[in-house]
Amino acid sequence: MVKVLVACRAGVGSSLMLKIKLNEVIAEHKWNMEVIHSSLDELSSFDGPIVVTLSDVADELKEEGVKKEIVGIRNLLDKKEIYTKVAKALQDIGVN
Amino acid sequence: MIEKIITEPLIQLKVKATDWRDAIQKAGSVLVEDGDVTPNYVDEIIRSAEKFGPYFVIAPHVALAHAPRQAGANTLAMGITTLDPPIDFHNEANDPVRYVFTLSAPDADSHLKAMQEFVRLLSMDGFYDVLDRATSGQEIMAYIESTVSTNRSDCNG
């Protein structure tokens, strides 16, 4: 089971939508993943390997040097984009 | 559920705005008038975007304007504002913005069901056609209600 944090600034809007779409992708591809949803404040206490967020937030986290696999999504309605990028993240951490 | 959160008084069509700040102010104004959010909530959306960039432009032409609930989200509500002409929000991937959905969510999880229906709406091409063509909020509400009830009966088999 791979833990994924879906986060946005407020933790009530975009991250929730992203979580809904990510869960659809996970179900379609039968990935063994646990999705946790929160605001960025909880990033420091998150112990999983992957963080999924909108692309501008992702760029910022990368600049800050956050030691996680950071996935930035431009269009959170686009399941193809979500699938491609999360699949690559799974590959990079050695799963799948 | 979503049809209880988006209500007709919160829908504004073909709004003219001078820039993205003006667009957010105008989009938020109906929620302020309705008592769903405080004026500070709308200001906070703008302040956050100034600080962090247009983080709420979530898909091509779509902005989900929202801020942390502590900024002044009183009741669960969502406004729809269409912009004509569309406005640049400085989000290269998804500009220009035509549709601003202003969300007020007083707690983190109670709106999960509504957001699921909202995501489903946003994933339907027909929704944007209706947003573009509608001349009244009533037409948009009728579309939302029919879509939601169709999906529910599908789910029930």
Automatic annotation (TrEMBL), chain A:
UniProt keyword annotations, A-Z: Sugar transport, Transferase, Transport
GO annotation terms (biological process): phosphoenolpyruvate-dependent sugar phosphotransferase system
Record-level Gene Ontology MF annotations: protein-N(PI)-phosphohistidine-sugar phosphotransferase activity
Ranges for domain PTS EIIB type-2: 2-94
Protein name per its UniProtKB record: PTS ascorbate transporter subunit IIB
Organism, scientific name: Lacticaseibacillus chiayiensis
Lineage: Bacteria, Bacillati, Bacillota, Bacilli, Lactobacillales
UniProtKB/TrEMBL annotation, chain B:
PTS EIIA type-2 domain location: 4-147
Record's function text: The phosphoenolpyruvate-dependent sugar phosphotransferase system (sugar PTS), a major carbohydrate active transport system, catalyzes the phosphorylation of incoming sugar substrates concomitantly with their translocation across the cell membrane. The enzyme II UlaABC PTS system is involved in ascorbate transport.
Keyword Manganese in annotation: no
One GO-annotated biological process of the protein: phosphoenolpyruvate-dependent sugar phosphotransferase system
Protein name: Ascorbate-specific PTS system EIIA component
GO cellular component: cytoplasm
Location within or outside the cell: Cytoplasm
